[in-house]
Amino acid sequence: MTILAVTKVENTNIFSTIDGIFQKLVAILEKIIFFDIAGFPLIVLWLILGAILLTFRMGFINIRGFKHAIDIVRGKYDSPEDEGEVTHFQALATAISGTVGIGNVAGVAIAIQLGGPGAVFWMTIGGLFGMTSKFTECTLGLKYRRINSDGSIAGGPMYYLSKGLASMGLRAMGQGMATLFAFFCGLSTLVGASIFQTNQSYIAVSNVIPGLSSWVYGAIVAILVAIVILGGMKRIGAVAGSLVPTMAVIYIVACLWILGINFTQILPAFGKIFTEAFSPSAVVAGGFVTTFSIGLRRSAYSNEAGLGTASIPHASAKTNEPIREGIVALLEPFIDTVIICNMTALVIVITGVYQDYRQGIDGVKMTSDAFASVFSWFPYILAFAVFLFAFSTMISTAYQGIISWNYLFGSQTAIIPKIIYILGVIIGANVSVGAALDFTDMMLLAMAFPNLIGCYLMSGEVASDLRNYMLRLQSGTM
User: pTM value?
Assistant: First the structure.
């Protein structure tokens, strides 16, 4: 007993120091990355305006390509002769596992807590337009991927920024932005994502297992993550392909159960979300600007559209048609934000638990209380779902971080980012959510600057490839 008590105090002191460093770093970076114009963070405007412009440029592919995307995922166009490491479905599952995670549980709750129910409306708008951003970046990711001598694949913004812009005569600009993206992506995934996912999943699990040591939890999760990521993209794709359907079904069924019991309150809840999107309640500090900004910010964290991260796993898909993989990718923001995030939001708004959380940031706890308000044992189901969400996200973001590291330092040192990620998992269970959340947000959103510049400059190329693809599809030549 005495030894355990001393160990706990020592660990607390160690992680308190780490947390203090994080908070100071966040305070400095926040002034740079969240620079605002008339109260609106520039990065948020950059993301939503970029998504809208790309949607018009691609002829609303987010709508007209939806049915075709489902056909592709079902395997209708799979070809074993195509180069790649994983199927369309496995690439989609890996990318979704990196987005359908804690952001759908804790992120939605935090958005409602800070921006009111109206923030959910702007999350949804961000998701709908973000479908085209995802299409564009994932098309480019596969088009400019690199196939190594051993058959493994490396792709993502760092490759299409350097190669794509070089083909336009902008070699120096492309290399500079590729390096900048890889730097931000490495920090976001290897440090930010590992910390935040472990942090919030620990809150959910410890809520149903009182007395669970954060140190023990972090160590166990770190071991599980290590087993998967040390096996490379094929193992990650296989695990994600199994986990994603399971966790999605568990969580969606749980949400539908609560919504079914409160069926008559669904329309009023939607009405409240829509009304407060434009006229937030008085308790929301900053009014409309806060609601709008928080909604789009949480949307970006949840579905990552416009950030370029999804193009990394999608580059490994077995296909020689970049447009086809881009069309598959546009399903992600729809599944992640339009469906799952809105289910979480409805549960929270209908149960009204967000009204009791005006102090502090505890997203998972709020969602857990919303579930518990209907059935006392529901938090156990939520804890299991959250663990799956967090674990699947961790193995996906670890891969993104490894690819970024390899781009910057070479694949010979690939073991180093894996070690960094695993240490981040352990630390994550022991730092405050505020610092972890803000750091992850900043690194994620910072990636949008180089990525969307590249997407804008190469959007004409993607639009031309899309027209050619659609003509071949309609003529029946594929």
Answer: 0.81
